[in-house]
């Protein structure tokens, strides 16, 4: 077949944020699809969202109900979602009850009833909910060959009438191999509702999609008052980070730190500020955002451990007014605290905020709080997830400062409990040292990927206005162990 002979398959937009990207641009029009999963997984809500996004009076949607909940009861709950449009009922969206036909007659009668309604309405979308009920009813009186013939005839008729079809059913994954429904279908969307300790996580998988490439793997989705929103695993990972051009250096806002960094933070870098509790990691991040605001650069702060009002109050004690920039739209504080959070959902929230505000600076405070906000299953893949998230964020050109708490030891200079230092372009390490019976704080720049940086170990103090970096700490060796020893005095030459 030549390129000129190929038929262009148009895509049906689902109306579900993120799902079209997972599907490779939407569902093929006139395809025969199955939405499967366990009870409570969101199958009916997904079907309704697709229906209301595509139905018009000229090309309506037919929604066949079969022995499930009555249409009136179904609509009572579905009308709570923002996608629900009551003006489309009985014009663009029609509900047809097949319960009596299924109970009293055979599969041929069921097929004839569906065809009659389709021929009369010329629908763009057809939904049968629950198709599993039809199969169960027929299972006791019909052989597998007859059932497969019924499914094939149904698919043929609906496709010939140019309808995109969705069969909804409560299936188990073990049925995929032998059930004729899955053999005939063009697309198979499987919805999962997984209980992980005290959290519930919803995931979606495109198990089958003829004629186009979809994004593989399990994708998180959430049901809100707006309906279903999906979070593709590859969101934000397209495109390439521009490293060829000379990048300017951003002022950190911490006096003395830019000198240690070799002139400031390279624009578009990911900076990791690591240290034990109380060393001032969050203060550095706060000063970084405040400096950007002072220079007219919009910023975003993603926090997990305190509420926005608490964060702004703490900034105010350092003499930084965050309320006015937030009101002006130059500062966005993203508070993410649900205990069943996913990394992909967080990435979407932050990337949307970056696009919306044109942010140049981003703070993630902290990675430990972020990990605790995740559902248990996502914590197991935290390192991989951070790799995807940091990669997606740096592709936007935003400069990231992330804080991470490390447990202090006196044998090594640990950089992160997650072994993620390779993800960071620049690393700033804070630590406590004991000198002359006092607990003092020191700072060192461990890495700046873009160029040279100071190797000095500097003492610093946390003051009422933020971090103040002092002079190089001399006269001791073993500073990075936390228990330094004074250098031995130089011995005099006996010949002198």
Key attributes of the depicted protein:
single chain, 496 residues, alpha/beta, Rossmann fold, nine-stranded mixed β-sheet, 24 strands
Structural commentary:
With 496 residues, this protein is of the alpha/beta class. The chain folds into two domains: 7-231, 3-Layer(aba) Sandwich (Rossmann fold), CATH 3.40.50; 249-486, Rossmann fold (3-Layer(aba) Sandwich), CATH 3.40.50. The protein is built from 16 helices and 24 strands. The strands form five sheets. Strands 5-4-6-7-3-8-9-10-11 form a nine-stranded mixed sheet, with helices on both faces. Helix 5 packs parallel to helix 7 and helix 13 (343-357) runs parallel beside helix 16 (382-394). Residues 10-244, 248-483 form the KaiC domain.
Short description:
The chain is an alpha/beta fold and 496 residues long. The protein folds into two domains: 7-231, 3-Layer(aba) Sandwich (Rossmann fold); 249-486, Rossmann fold (3-Layer(aba) Sandwich), CATH 3.40.50. The protein has 16 helices and 24 strands.
């Amino acid at each position: 077949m030549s390129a000129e002979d190929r038929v262009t398959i148009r895509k049906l937009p689902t109306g579900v944020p993120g799902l079209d990207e997972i599907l490779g641009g939407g569902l093929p029009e006139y395809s025969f699809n199955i939405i499967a999963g366990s009870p409570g997984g969101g199958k009916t809500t997904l079907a309704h969202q697709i229906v209301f996004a595509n139905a018009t009076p000229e090309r309506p949607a037919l929604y066949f109900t079969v022995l499930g909940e009555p249409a009136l009861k179904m609509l009572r709950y579905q009308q709570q979602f923002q996608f629900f449009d009551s003006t489309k009922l009985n014009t663009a969206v029609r509900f047809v009850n097949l319960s009596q036909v299924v109970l009293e007659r055979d599969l041929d009668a069921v097929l004839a009833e569906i065809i009659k309604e389709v021929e009369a309405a010329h629908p763009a979308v057809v939904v049968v909910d629950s198709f599993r009920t039809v199969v169960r009813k027929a299972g006791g009186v019909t052989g597998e060959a007859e059932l497969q013939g019924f499914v094939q005839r149904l698919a043929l008729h609906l496709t010939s009438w140019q309808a995109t079809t969705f069969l909804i059913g409560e299936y188990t994954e073990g049925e995929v191999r032998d059930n004729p429904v899955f053999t005939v279908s063009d697309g198979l969307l499987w919805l999962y509702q997984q209980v992980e300790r005290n959290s519930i996580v919803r995931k979606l998988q495109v198990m089958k999609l003829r004629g186009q490439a979809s994004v593989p793997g399990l994708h998180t989705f959430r049901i809100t008052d707006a309906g279903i929103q999906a979070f593709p695993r590859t969101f934000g990972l397209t495109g390439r980070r521009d490293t060829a051009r000379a990048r300017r250096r951003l002022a950190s806002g911490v006096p003395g730190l830019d000198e240690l960094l070799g002139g400031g933070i390279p624009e578009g870098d990911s900076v990791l500020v690591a240290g034990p509790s109380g060393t001032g990691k969050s203060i550095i991040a706060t000063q970084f955002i405040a400096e950007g605001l002072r220079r007219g650069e919009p910023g975003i702060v993603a926090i997990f451990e305190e509420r926005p009002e608490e964060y702004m109050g703490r900034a105010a004690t350092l003499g930084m007014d965050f309320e006015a920039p937030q009101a002006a739209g130059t500062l966005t504080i993203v508070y993410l605290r649900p205990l069943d959070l996913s990394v992909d959902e967080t990435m979407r929230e932050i990337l949307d905020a970056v696009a919306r505000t044109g942010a140049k600076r981003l703070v993630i405070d902290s990675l430990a709080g972020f990990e605790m906000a995740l559902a248990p299953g996502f914590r197991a893949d935290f390192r991989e997830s951070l790799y995807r998230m940091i990669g997606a964020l740096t592709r936007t050109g935003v400069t990231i400062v992330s804080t991470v708490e490390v447990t202090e030891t006196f044998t090594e200079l640990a950089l992160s409990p997650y072994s993620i230092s390779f993800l960071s372009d620049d690393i700033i390490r804070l630590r406590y040292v004991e000198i002359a019976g006092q607990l003092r704080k020191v700072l060192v720049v461990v890495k700046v990927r873009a160029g040279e940086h100071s190797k000095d170990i500097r003492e610093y103090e946390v003051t009422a206005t933020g971090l103040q970096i002092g002079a190089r700490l001399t006269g001791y060796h073993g500073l990075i162990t936390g228990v330094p020893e004074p250098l031995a005095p130089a011995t005099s030459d006996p010949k002198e």
